[in-house]
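Hi V.,

You were right to ask for the full record rather than a summary. Here it is.
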Amino acid sequence: IVDTGSWVTATACKGCEGCGGHTEDPFDVARSGTAAWEPCGPLCRDGCHGGRCLYREIYLEGSSIEGRWFRDRLRFAGDPGGAPDGEAQTASASRSFVATMGCSLGESGLFRSQRQTGILGLAPGSSQQPMFVSQLLSSRQKAGISADSAAFTLCLQDVGGWLRFGGSSRSASVRWVPLQSTGPHAKYHVNVLELSVDGHTHTVKLGRTQLDSASTLTYMPKDTYVWLRHEIERFCLSHKSCGSIAPPAGGSGHHVCWRGVKSRHHFPIVRFAMQSGVEVDWKPHAYLLQQGSIWKRFCYAFSHTRALPDGAGLVLGASWMVGQELVFDTGRGQLGVSHTHSEGASRMHRLGRGAGAAEAKGQQSVVSVRVLARTLTDSQRPLQVGKNASTLLAMDTLVRADSQAAHATSGTGLTAPRLEAGQSTRASVETRAVPIPHASTPLAGDLQPIFLATFTSLSAVMLVLKSAPRRRLPQWCAGAG
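Predicted structure:
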């Protein structure tokens, strides 16, 4: 799971007796020639055992993971088979860096029931315990690859998206708002001043707003939620174009849906007024989630909640991020926002063909990973919601030993090369989309992963892209090229 609302990066490890059944086998740290346990020291805020640094992370909805910290040399494998026109994914994708990650030996709640093997935390963390992304970007800066690399970009669409590390947005339409991140384990915050629908405005009392990609829904104070529902329903009643309100199939009346909807374009746009005079439109295709493939219902992708422990009154989840390119520029303390539109896969991130092309020309070098997900359309799968219930960006962490590769990819059509002695730093894999069967049970949430982009240890295996059966080709975010 890719999570902008937490900072821990961890994967299920061998020896975890309480871990659930996941997409990939647990990672065996002992099989990695470059891995080492993090020793006890001042950074071990959750204690030590047997000379090894421990961690335990509890999430807002009650789920938790715990285990030991370890360090390993990582890289993002290239994507020559999956990238448009067979081009290299990026010039710097083969470069390695050392990162600290969690080896989970205990899981509870949704971590046990979900299919994803791990979590990639993108929140800032702290200088004492830097997050995965800061370690990656720091390694780029130290190597002199990019002078403007203290940023990552997240772009989600209904059925596609990408995550880019390093560099800044080249979109001419990007608008910048102050991005705050304070505290020992900081989260990303912006300030929302007011909401408006069809010319009617509402002042947000708790404007401190958290950005959380692992939350399927967008959450707000109850008074804001009541106001927003009223304004959407007032608009629909006056225009007589939205259908009728009904509870979700198999669900309760708590989650409000519409049926008889001819098009989501008939619903109003919700406008967020932010600092620096920036206004961001939240479009109906994002705040309405489709449920059912034949008897379609469109359910609100927002709900109400109390203020969070960090003081945030609003939580902008994956539903708010759909259709936008978000640049988290931690170096400048800015969030870049620009609307995207769907184009073909040929618009996928391009920095030049061939390894080293970008660096040879002195351009910024970035790491870009494609990940895809779609909303559930099977009417027999109930709509379930909640923090970490699912994520629109289902980027799974896969770290497994080479001896497990043949077994793990058996029957999927993947090419899994063996790692010979002395070849660990050069090993790669043909990354291409291959069909895999649906799980016997649905995800504990609204969205189903289509591609699982993975990061790996150099002495383990590789990045693998997997796909589930789909009815149409992915729509890619514009502004990446």
